[in-house]
Amino acid sequence: MDPKLGRMASALLALLLLLDGGMLSSPAPPPGPLEKIGRYIDLHQDEFVQTLREWVAVESDSVQPVPRLRQELLRMMAMAAEKLQRLGASVDSVDLGSQQLPGGQSLPLPPILLAELGNDPRKPTVCFYGHLDVQPAKQGDGWLADPYTLTEVDGKLYGRGATDNKGPVLAWINAVSTFGAVEQDLPVNVKFVLEGMEEAGSVGLEELVRREKERFFAGVDYILISDNLWLSRKKPALTYGTRGNSYFLVEVKCRTQDFHSGTFGGILHEPLADLVALLGSLVDSSGHILIPGIYDSVAPLTEDEKDTYKAVDLDLEEYRNSSQVEKFLFETKEEILMHLWRYPSLSIHGIEGAFDEPGAKTVIPGRVVGKFSIRLVPHMNVSVVEKQVKRHLEDVFSKRNSPNHMTVSMVVGLQPWLANTDDNQYLAAKRAIRTVFGREPDMIRDGSSIPIAKIFQDTLQKSVLMLPLGAVDDGEHSQNEKINRWNYIEGSKLFAAFFLEMAKLH
Amino acid sequence: MDPKLGRMASALLALLLLLDGGMLSSPAPPPGPLEKIGRYIDLHQDEFVQTLREWVAVESDSVQPVPRLRQELLRMMAMAAEKLQRLGASVDSVDLGSQQLPGGQSLPLPPILLAELGNDPRKPTVCFYGHLDVQPAKQGDGWLADPYTLTEVDGKLYGRGATDNKGPVLAWINAVSTFGAVEQDLPVNVKFVLEGMEEAGSVGLEELVRREKERFFAGVDYILISDNLWLSRKKPALTYGTRGNSYFLVEVKCRTQDFHSGTFGGILHEPLADLVALLGSLVDSSGHILIPGIYDSVAPLTEDEKDTYKAVDLDLEEYRNSSQVEKFLFETKEEILMHLWRYPSLSIHGIEGAFDEPGAKTVIPGRVVGKFSIRLVPHMNVSVVEKQVKRHLEDVFSKRNSPNHMTVSMVVGLQPWLANTDDNQYLAAKRAIRTVFGREPDMIRDGSSIPIAKIFQDTLQKSVLMLPLGAVDDGEHSQNEKINRWNYIEGSKLFAAFFLEMAKLH
């Protein structure tokens, strides 16, 4: 063969191989692995929905500590363990012992499932975290149907746990199982951490992660969590940061008992008046925090960063309507996103010890505890904030010359979290989203603190990715929680595409 | 007979009569009516205590709406009606029908007893108000003995209702009955209004007083209430005024549901921040009310009035200790009394709708209701105060440019009450106190509003006297409520002396 022809043939072969990989669109290419997978998932979607129906049917409520529900939760974990075993994974069902309740009663804790599938040293190892417990729900709370019977209306799958978090857990399992079904090699090693106490504070999880750091988690390269939502109904998102939180209690005490306002009103330094002055010194009417120094460490805003907010899909009018808020502090999308994600905020939550019931009680509370918290952003530091808050409150209080006793304590201190979006798994997730959804993802942060991300980040020092599947209106924790069939099915494809992209980038 | 001798004999006779009246002390005068009465009461004090024991034994709790207690209350009213009949009074037991409870249940209301004894047009008619219901009490709350078994320790008669108000009601009855026992003409016509729902808001009383204005109350000259306490343990008191009260609710609403501080913190005009600013604008750290105009109508302080506070028996050190208050807003007795009695005060009571439980909930309340009240003094006017408060809050709120909705409402509006202490019954009461206790009474006011005094004052336009019998440490409404045997017995004498003085002054 003419060497020229030979080179041409080689080039043609290479092109065909490339086409087979699904990287180029052409009139009729032979299906690539992702296309096969996508077709399989589409064809079997009713089976996937059926499995979700079976999982939703288990009332795995971890919040209400009653024996019947705890049994349901244990049953849920056993079902999941069996599902993972059928997938071919080796499953370690880690017993966490029992939970002591305040009344002296005790309840068994659900095990945490540590599962792994594949240990090819040439492949990256991705660890998926999810939870199978749910918030309480009963039809009488305002559900249109029984919350534990998955009910489909207009492509929406209503049911407790559908989006938080049973749907995303199953989407991950669907993606893994489909590789087997279409006889494709799973391009990544997969690990699972599935817990059953997330809604009740992830009892035992942090300790387990620490204990398993050098064992189960030793080979893990990436951690993926899919336990939040998009910012939009239709546009996928990647979450790359969460705010931290520092929660303060400020107690002002005159004496333990309350006073009668007729008998003592007029001669007391009233603790509640002191507290109202303290709380009133924290933030002005434009939302600006008045604690000296609080903004000192906030990361400066760059032009590049500004552009990222412009790209985010947020329909302000719809957001306002769905929030039922007449007017926000800010007028533009960019300002709103920045004040939810990259600037600190201070909220006053309430007062313990004052009169809080309906009616008109003439009481002067003897001891009151005000509660407020500051959402922290990069590069604020929890301990610095704690000092600033205490110094400020002491200043304000000392100016009142009150003989009452003030005590300030920080009861929660969570650092903000910000991922490096140039990490491989962020790049892989972006590409997978482009492939499956045909568009760029919203790059979003979460204004809340997500303790689970922080636990993995701090304990394992690995890259954590939050890749949500659910739409903004899924109603986690609310009545009529749902996941759209489209999100569930396309989400299963997204995870499969993510595996392929990870393998390429690794 | 020589006319001179005749005149001398007449003068001597007059002198003897005067001595017989007990107005002069002399080595061995024949006993006057009050002396006889005092001796009788001393001799029969155990019987009087025994009656109090029988009355305290009835658990006439009007606060807890349960059938068993309501039956006890009806039994108490029947016992009192019988007691008054045995006294010779004609008793009208006015049926008030039944009380509808929120649950749909209904309970019979105890009758109000309207009783009268004597209708001599030459005598003054004094109407005594008292109540026979009590606050709830059970030994487990911290009582040293069963609250419904009158228990005497060191001259203290412990039992629920002993001082509030069964003891004073019986002291009045003891005084009346003793005139009969020592065969003395009762120098006044006596009427009784005894109710059984005082601790539950005097259900039906105001309407009855209005309805009976031209009938039962037509001949009444004076109204006497003995349902409060002295300011001292030993020194008797006369109460000549109470503060009024205006109770405000200020609602700030963004939406009905709460927000999550992670998801919304930073972009909201938070209702609780608005409310804290509103409440913080009401009073400064020295207790001075900041509402413009609020002090305009406060009666100017005269030198004479100042002197009345000097005379009041109040041991500041003991007061501070028993109140468990380290430091009051003011240093002197006079300032403290004036700020409790003759200056308005503003107290913040609490907030409805905010987070009020233990723990650290990251909520932004969507709708909050602040509660505060102003104790009113002569010559403040409830409707003027209402306008001033609303205008002030609207001013403060408008400066915040908040899109939230503020609503201010005044839910209680009670005018202050001040008696004319030159009234006959005040003079008579002072003289009776001098006679029985050998000292001047403390002239006191009450910082609280006493609705019952206002009802009589406003409806009947008669002079109302508050003549307490109990000592400052009697513990009305508390555990271990008591009346001292000394207060109960000397109090019975005091009422008898009061009858005699009233008759003289009329």
Automatic annotation (TrEMBL), chains A, B:
What cofactor does its activity depend on?
A: Mn(2+)
Highest taxon in the source lineage: Eukaryota
Q: How is the cofactor bound?
A: Binds 2 manganese ions per subunit.
Residues the entry annotates as binding substrate: 227, 260, 362, 375, 449, 477
What GO biological process terms are annotated to this protein in UniProt? proteolysis; regulation of protein metabolic process
User: Which positions in this protein are listed as binding Mn(2+) 2?
Assistant: 131, 164, 227
The stretch of residues making up the signal peptide is 1-25
- The UniProt annotation places Mn(2+) 1 binding at 164, 199, 477
The text of the family note is:
Belongs to the peptidase M20A family.
In Swiss-Prot or TrEMBL terms, this protein is called Carnosine dipeptidase 1
Organism ancestry:
Eukaryota, Metazoa, Chordata, Craniata, Vertebrata
- The gene designation is CNDP1
